Each structure stands twice: as structure tokens, then as C-alpha cells.
């Protein structure tokens, strides 16, 4: 009887562990990317709402805001505010 682990079993175990580890790493990377995108969207929404409040108070619309290493470009029009940033853009209506 063979009481030890065979070389083939050891290689199979290592390969299985490696595949699981790589799949987990890819999953966490995609989750991180999704979280970053969600956070940037949230920042853009806050900036747009802030500009809407500035318009309501009669203040000028800011054209450019830098936050957390990102540049947000703002375009205020009559009834809408557009915030553009590297991954996307959002538009809110003010009326």
C-alpha cells in the first residue's frame, strides 16, 4: 500500500489551487474596478447637485473641479448640468 501522496496527486492539487487562486484574483480585480466606477459616478452626481445649488443661489457655475486625482469638467446650461470625467459623464436636469 502507498501511504504517501503520489507526485501526480501533488501536481494536480497545486494546479487546482493555482486555478482557484487566479480566478479569485480576477474576481477581486473586477470587484475593485466596479467599486471605483461606482465611487466616481457618485462623485460626479454630488458635483452636479452642488452646481445646481450654486445656480439656485445665483452663483456662477464652476467649470473644472479636481477631486481625488480626477478632473471633472462641468457644463451648466439653462435647465441641465453635464459633468464629464475620464470614465463617463452624467447629466441632471435642474427644472
Automatic annotation (TrEMBL):
Domain of life: Bacteria
Entry-linked InterPro entries: Uncharacterised_HI0941 (IPR020511)
UniProt xrefs under Pfam families: DUF5374
Protein name per Swiss-Prot or TrEMBL: Type II secretion system protein
Organism, as annotated: Haemophilus influenzae (strain PittGG)
Amino acid at each position: 500500500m502507498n501511504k504517501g501522496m503520489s507526485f501526480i496527486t501533488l501536481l494536480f492539487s497545486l494546479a487546482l489551487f493555482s486555478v482557484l487562486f487566479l480566478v479569485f484574483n480576477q474576481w477581486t480585480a473586477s470587484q475593485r474596478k466596479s467599486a471605483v466606477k461606482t465611487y466616481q459616478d457618485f462623485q460626479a452626481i454630488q458635483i452636479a447637485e452642488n452646481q445646481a445649488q450654486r445656480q439656485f443661489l445665483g452663483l456662477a457655475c464652476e467649470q473644472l473641479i479636481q477631486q481625488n486625482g480626477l478632473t471633472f469638467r462641468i457644463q451648466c446650461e439653462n435647465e441641465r448640468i453635464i459633468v464629464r470625467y475620464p470614465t463617463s459623464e452624467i447629466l441632471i436636469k435642474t427644472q
